Structures are given as structure tokens and as C-alpha cells.
């Protein structure tokens, strides 16, 4: 079992920045993939950014150049630095952990990000 605790999120104006953090605990494999997904009402959950424990990253096209994912393997934490936020970035953001690309996904409880003036 893996437990994920998210922090950050909130209300920010368009063009602003926000930082999300996620801490994993439990049965953590040395190689793993952690990431952030987001979901809005009526839509499927979509990948925002992911990072492997070896440092490989993947970003959704919509956030490339604006968001940066990073991690601290010693603390089993990941961060998502979000910049130049747009109203369409408004969503519930979920932290995700998998032991590999075929592994069972674990999810955090979700944190609301609202971009509005």
C-alpha cells in the first residue's frame, strides 16, 4: 500500500504561480513513477506531468513551458511548480504513484486549483 498526501493548491489569478507538493509513504519501490493528473467535472482525468525516480519527465502539451515537475527521492516527494496559470488550468489535481508503467496506481485525495480573477 502507498499513501499519498498532497498540499498546495488554492485560488490564483490568471498569470500567477502555484506550487503543489505530494509526499508518498508506505511500500515505495526504489524505481517508481509519480505524477500529477487533473480532472474537471464531466471530463476524464488527464495527465499533467510525471517523473520517474531516475528523473525522466513527461508533460501534457498544454502545460509544457509553464509547469515543472521535480522530486526528492530521499523524501519520496514530488512537486509541481505551475506558472503562467490560465483559467483552463482550473481543476482538481491528483497525485499519482505507480511502481512501473503497468503498476497499480495509487491516488491522493486531490487538491483544488482555481485560476480566476
How would you describe this protein?
The chain is mainly beta. The protein has no helices and eleven strands. It has strands spanning 2-8, 10-12, 18-26, 33-39, 46-52, 57-59, 67-72, 77-82, 91-98, 106-107, 111-115. It is globular. The mean pLDDT is 96.
Comma- or semicolon-separated keywords:
mainly beta; 117 residues
Furnish the topology, listing elements before pairings.
Elements: E1 2-8, E2 10-12, E3 18-26, E4 33-39, E5 46-52, E6 57-59, E7 67-72, E8 77-82, E9 91-98, E10 106-107, E11 111-115
Parallel strand pairs: 2-11
Antiparallel strand pairs: 1-3, 3-8, 4-5, 4-9, 5-6, 7-8, 9-10, 9-11
Give Rg in angstroms.
Answer: 13 Å
User: What best-fitting shape do the alpha-carbon axes yield?
Assistant: globular
Strand content: over 45%
Order of helices and strands: EEEEEEEEEEE
Helix content: under 10%
The overall strand count is 11
Largest sheet entry: 7 strands, mixed
Low-pLDDT sequence parts? none
Alpha-beta classification:
mainly beta
Q: Kindly report the oligomeric state of this protein.
A: single chain
In short:
By secondary structure, the protein is an all-beta fold. It is built from no helices and eleven strands.
Amino acid at each position: 500500500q502507498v499513501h499519498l498526501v498532497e498540499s498546495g493548491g488554492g485560488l490564483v489569478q490568471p498569470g500567477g504561480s502555484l506550487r503543489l507538493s505530494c509526499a508518498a509513504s508506505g511500500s515505495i519501490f526504489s524505481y517508481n513513477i509519480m505524477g500529477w493528473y487533473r480532472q474537471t467535472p464531466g471530463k476524464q482525468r488527464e495527465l499533467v506531468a510525471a517523473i520517474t525516480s531516475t528523473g525522466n519527465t513527461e508533460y501534457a502539451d498544454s502545460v509544457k513551458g509553464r509547469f515543472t515537475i521535480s522530486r526528492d527521492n530521499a523524501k519520496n516527494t514530488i512537486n509541481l511548480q505551475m506558472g503562467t496559470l490560465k483559467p483552463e488550468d482550473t481543476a482538481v489535481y491528483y497525485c499519482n504513484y505507480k511502481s512501473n508503467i503497468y503498476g497499480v496506481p495509487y491516488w491522493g485525495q486531490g487538491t483544488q486549483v482555481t485560476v480566476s480573477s
